Amino acid sequence: MKIILFILVVYLCYLIAQIYSYGKSTYAILTKNSYFKTCLDKGLYGEYLTFKRLKTYEKDGAKFLFNCYLPKKDGNTTEIDVLMIWKSGIYVFESKNYSGWIFGSEKAKTWTQTLPSGRGRKARKEHFLNPIFQNKLHIKCLQDVLVNETLIHSVIVFSERCSFKKLDVKNAIVIQRYDVRSTVERINQQHKDALSVDDINKICKLLYPYSQVSEQEKKDHVAAIQKGLLEENIASGVNRLLVDHHLSDDGKVESEENGDSHDQENKTDEFVKKEERICPKCGSKMTLRTARRGENKGKQFYGCSNYPKCKMIQAIELVEIMENA
Q1: 136 by DSSP, 3-state: which?
Q2: Which of 28, 38, 66, 185 is most enclosed, with most CB atoms within 10 A?
């Protein structure tokens, strides 16, 4: 009993020390996220762990910003996970706090996370957006915001818990978190004094408001991603159907075999409902589910396959979307 009590006291002291250290960090001050909110959210925790690897650079003049929502030309926003503004330029970190095996190609639209079987769990694959493409968009939007041309470095950071099984990448930096400091050091040796102290402060001041958006703006950002993914999935489904079918003069889909447009419309709906969707929050696969209780009992919705770590859900409004597409 005394041993158990001793272990509990030690753990409690450790937890208090961790909470105190977190509360004093730049990450906590800027994001205003509590320690437990960060630790219980896989995405946020990955950002924080990346910052912890880099925070010593603050003593050498580096400035950090987190979750910057930059405007895109279509009126929506794109979110940068971690920004470090230092003497060797602006570092744009795309954080992927994944486990399992990672497969990907520099030019592929999506990459794959394979989670092996074990302890009664079946092996499964999850697809997520190519993080290189994501960071290219981030940097393009960042360049649009900056007044002057600035040296920008793209760094994709995966967790230590994953393994790169087949990664075909030659023209981008894709690393695991334990390599982030050595990567920054290497870049810093190549691009010393790209920014002055005054430049760093001006850029940080310019970008700071984009990291302090309202909760409504964050919700709008997620909604825009969801809408974009839905429209893309619907367009993909229709295009695949048109490979084997043609449009009649009145715009209905007809079968080349029997011209039964009604049957093809049903196939279109079925295809759209089964089309794979990607979670806009963590990049995992969205699966079709049915509510079992509450006021929405019996209704179908899309839920993240990474539940309960990610609780993202999406309502099904296919009829309305098809009519407005």
Answers
A1: helix
A2: 66
